[in-house]
C-alpha cells in the first residue's frame, strides 16, 4: 500500500518534471500547434463560481497548415538540396539530416492548406465550446463568419463539424446545420467591415516595422550556424539555413508528428527565435504599429455593442439575429490588432518591446496569441451568489443555477488562448472580470483615443468607406454563404 503510494508519488513528480521541461513547441510563435496559454496574471481560466457565460465572441486564426508555397517551401527545398548535394558526415542531433526529406508528398494540394492536425484542432475547438458554454440547444443551426481563403474556411467548417457533432442530426437537413458567411479576403473595398481590415486601411503598411525582427535574427543566427557546423564535417551551414530549420520543428510536428528538428537547438536559441516572432507581430500588426488599434477597433466595438444588447435579442434594423456564440475565423495578422484595440498586454514596464533585448516579463508573446488556432475570446458573464453550502429543494421546482436567477449582474472577461487577461483598470468583478457597463465605457474611451478608421486610415476622400463592422447583423456585399455539413445521401 505504502509502496503503491510512493510509486504514485514518484510518477506524479516525474510527470510534472516532464511538464515543466522546456518545450520548443511552446516557443515557436506562428509555427506552433495550438496549446492553452499559461495564466500570465494568475487568474483561473474557469468561469468564476456563481457565473454563467451567456454570450461569447471568438476571433480565431486558422488551424495548423502546411508552409506557404514560394517562401517557406523554397526554404525547405534549398535545405534539402544543400544536405543532398555533397559528401559530408553529420553527427549528434544532426545525424538524421542525411536521411531527411521535406514532409510534403502532394506539392499541388498541400502547401498553404490545413494539415490533419489543423483540422483536428478546429474540430476540437467546436467540441470544447459546446461543452464549455452550451450557448445553443441541440438541433439549433449555427452561423459563423470567415475570411475567404480556403484554409480559413476549412477551419470554420471543421469547427462546425465538431460543434454540431452531437446526437442524431446528420440526416436531418433542417436541424443542426452550420452556415459560414464568407467575407472577401485581403481586398481594400470593404474597409473596416471585414475580417482582414488591415487591407482596407491604406496607411496601415506605413506603420509596419516588422523588419526589426530580421535585425534581431541577424544578431543570433550566426552563432547558431557556427555551433551546428561543429557537428558537420564536409558541409557548412550559414545564417540562411537557420530560420527554415527552426520553423521545421513546429511545421513537421503538425504535418507528421516528427520532432527531430525540435531536438537540434538549445533553450536559449529557441527563446531568441520566439522573440524574433514577438517583434515581428508586435511591430508588424500589433501595438508597435500605430495603425494597429484603429484596424482592430471596429470588431471590438461591434462585439461590445452586441454584448450590451444581450443574448437572444435582435438589434435595431438587423437582417441577421446573431447567435450568442459569435465565431470569426481569419489569419494570424488580424489577431494582434484586437490586442491593440483592447489596450491589453500594455504595461509601461514591458511595452514597447525592445528591438534588441528580450524582457522576460513581457506579456506579448506570439506563441500565446498567433500559434495555429490562436484566438481571443470576449465573454459576457451573468453572475450572482455562488451556490451556498446547502440548498433547499421544493418538490417540482428546479432551483435556478447561480448566474441564471432574475437578479444577476453582467461582466466581461477577455481570454487569449484561454488564459484570462484583465481589462486595464477594470477588474472589480468575480474572477477579475470587468462590469459590463464599465467595459462599454472603457471601449467608448478607447474609441476616442484611437480615432475612427476612415479618418486615421486616410480614407476621407473615399465616399463609401466605412469605419464600422456590421457583418454580424447584415450580410455585407460580396459575402457568400454556404452550409458545410454533408447533405443526406
Ligand atoms: C428533422 O427533425 C424534425 C424535428 O424534430 C422532424 O420533424 C423531422 O422529421 C426530421 N427529419 C428527418 C429527415 O429526420
Ligand atoms: C437550418 O439551416 C438549414 C440549411 O441552411 C435551413 O434549411 C433550415 O431552415 C435552418 N433551420 C432553422 C431552424 O433555422
Ligand atoms: C484599392 O486598390 C485599387 C487597386 O490597387 C486602387 O485602384 C484603389 O484606389 C484602392 N482603393 C482604395 C479605397 O484605397
Ligand atoms: C465602394 O465603392 C467601390 C467602387 O464603386 C465598390 O467596389 C465597393 O464594393 C464599395 N464598398 C462598399 C463597402 O460599399
Ligand atoms: C548560405 O548558403 C546558401 C547555399 O547553401 C546560399 O545560397 C546563401 O546565399 C548563403 N547565405 C549567406 C548569407 O551566405
Ligand atoms: C437564449 O435562448 C435559448 C433557447 O433558444 C435558451 O436556452 C437560453 O437560456 C436563452 N438565454 C438567455 C440568456 O435568455
Ligand atoms: C431603430 O432604427 C430606426 C431607423 O434607423 C430609428 O428611427 C429608431 O429610432 C431605432 N430604434 C431604436 C430603439 O433604436
Ligand atoms: C500603451 O500605453 C501607453 C502608455 O500608457 C500609451 O501611450 C499607448 O498608446 C498604449 N498603446 C496601446 C496600443 O494601447
Ligand atoms: C463583388 O460583387 C459584385 C456584384 O455582385 C461583382 O461584380 C464583383 O466581381 C465582386 N467582387 C469580388 C472581388 O468578388
Ligand atoms: C480613390 C482615392 O483617391 N483614393 C485615395 C484616398 O487616399 C488614400 C490615402 O491617402 C490613397 O491611398 C487612395 O489612393
From TrEMBL:
<keyword id="KW-0732">Signal</keyword>
<keyword id="KW-0325">Glycoprotein</keyword>
<keyword id="KW-0378">Hydrolase</keyword>
<dbReference type="Pfam" id="PF00328">
    <property type="entry name" value="His_Phos_2"/>
</dbReference>
<keyword id="KW-1015">Disulfide bond</keyword>
<dbReference type="InterPro" id="IPR016274">
    <property type="entry name" value="Histidine_acid_Pase_euk"/>
</dbReference>
<feature type="disulfide bond">
    <location>
        <begin position="51"/>
        <end position="383"/>
    </location>
</feature>
<dbReference type="InterPro" id="IPR029033">
    <property type="entry name" value="His_PPase_superfam"/>
</dbReference>
<feature type="disulfide bond">
    <location>
        <begin position="249"/>
        <end position="262"/>
    </location>
</feature>
<feature type="active site" description="Proton donor">
    <location>
        <position position="332"/>
    </location>
</feature>
<feature type="signal peptide">
    <location>
        <begin position="1"/>
        <end position="20"/>
    </location>
</feature>
<dbReference type="GO" id="GO:0003993">
    <property type="term" value="F:acid phosphatase activity"/>
</dbReference>
<feature type="active site" description="Nucleophile">
    <location>
        <position position="62"/>
    </location>
</feature>
<dbReference type="GO" id="GO:0009277">
    <property type="term" value="C:fungal-type cell wall"/>
</dbReference>
<dbReference type="InterPro" id="IPR033379">
    <property type="entry name" value="Acid_Pase_AS"/>
</dbReference>
<dbReference type="InterPro" id="IPR000560">
    <property type="entry name" value="His_Pase_clade-2"/>
</dbReference>
<protein>
    <recommendedName>
        <fullName>3-phytase</fullName>
    </recommendedName>
</protein>
<feature type="disulfide bond">
    <location>
        <begin position="426"/>
        <end position="434"/>
    </location>
</feature>
Amino acid at each position: 500500500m505504502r509502496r503503491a503510494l510512493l510509486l504514485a508519488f514518484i510518477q506524479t513528480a516525474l510527470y510534472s518534471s516532464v511538464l515543466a521541461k522546456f518545450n520548443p513547441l511552446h516557443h515557436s510563435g506562428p509555427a506552433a500547434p495550438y496549446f492553452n496559454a499559461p495564466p500570465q496574471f494568475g487568474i483561473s481560466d474557469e468561469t468564476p463560481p456563481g457565473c454563467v457565460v451567456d454570450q461569447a465572441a471568438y476571433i480565431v486564426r486558422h488551424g495548423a497548415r502546411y508552409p506557404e508555397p514560394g517562401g517557406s517551401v523554397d526554404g525547405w527545398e534549398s535545405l534539402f538540396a544543400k544536405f543532398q548535394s555533397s559528401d559530408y558526415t553529420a553527427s549528434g542531433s544532426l545525424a538524421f539530416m542525411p536521411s531527411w526529406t521535406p514532409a510534403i508528398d502532394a506539392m499541388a494540394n498541400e502547401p498553404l492548406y490545413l494539415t490533419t492536425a489543423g483540422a483536428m484542432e478546429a474540430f476540437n475547438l467546436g467540441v470544447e465550446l459546446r461543452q464549455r458554454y452550451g450557448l445553443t440547444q441541440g438541433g439549433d443551426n449555427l452561423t459563423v463568419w470567415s475570411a475567404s481563403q480556403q484554409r480559413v474556411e476549412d477551419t470554420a467548417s471543421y469547427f462546425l463539424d465538431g460543434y454540431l457533432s452531437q446526437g442524431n442530426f446528420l440526416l436531418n437537413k433542417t436541424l443542426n446545420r452550420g452556415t459560414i458567411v464568407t467575407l472577401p479576403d485581403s481586398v481594400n473595398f470593404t474597409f473596416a467591415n471585414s475580417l482582414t481590415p488591415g487591407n482596407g486601411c491604406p496607411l496601415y503598411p506605413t506603420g509596419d516595422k516588422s523588419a526589426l525582427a530580421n535585425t534581431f535574427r541577424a544578431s543570433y543566427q550566426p552563432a547558431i550556424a557556427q555551433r551546428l557546423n561543429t557537428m558537420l564535417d564536409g558541409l557548412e551551414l550559414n545564417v540562411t539555413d537557420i530560420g527554415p530549420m527552426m520553423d521545421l520543428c513546429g511545421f513537421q510536428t503538425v504535418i507528421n508528428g516528427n520532432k527531430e528538428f525540435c531536438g537540434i537547438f538549445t533553450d536559449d536559441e529557441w527563446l531568441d527565435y520566439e522573440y524574433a516572432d514577438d517583434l515581428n507581430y508586435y511591430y508588424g500588426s500589433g501595438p508597435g504599429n500605430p495603425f494597429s488599434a484603429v484596424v482592430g477597433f471596429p470588431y471590438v466595438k461591434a462585439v461590445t455593442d452586441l454584448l450590451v444588447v444581450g443574448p437572444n435579442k435582435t438589434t435595431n434594423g438587423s437582417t441577421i439575429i446573431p447567435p450568442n456564440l459569435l465565431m470569426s475565423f481569419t489569419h494570424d495578422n488580424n489577431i494582434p490588432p484586437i490586442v491593440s484595440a483592447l489596450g491589453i498586454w500594455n504595461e509601461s514596464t514591458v511595452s514597447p518591446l525592445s528591438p534588441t533585448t528580450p524582457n522576460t516579463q513581457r506579456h506579448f508573446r506570439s506563441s500565446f496569441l498567433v500559434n495555429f488556432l490562436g484566438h481571443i475570446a470576449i465573454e459576457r458573464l451573468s453572475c450572482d451568489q455562488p451556490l451556498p453550502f446547502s440548498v433547499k429543494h421544493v418538490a417540482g421546482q428546479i432551483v435556478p443555477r447561480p448566474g441564471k436567477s432574475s437578479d444577476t449582474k453582467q461582466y466581461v472577461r477577455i481570454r487569449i488562448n484561454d488564459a484570462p487577461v484583465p481589462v486595464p483598470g477594470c477588474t472589480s468583478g468575480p474572477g477579475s472580470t470587468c462590469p459590463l457597463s464599465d467595459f462599454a465605457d472603457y471601449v467608448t474611451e478607447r474609441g476616442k483615443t484611437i480615432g475612427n478608421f476612415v479618418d486615421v486610415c486616410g480614407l476621407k476622400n473615399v465616399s463609401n468607406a466605412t469605419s464600422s463592422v456590421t457583418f454580424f447583423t447584415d450580410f455585407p456585399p460580396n459575402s457568400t454563404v454556404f452550409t458545410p455539413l454533408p447533405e443526406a445521401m
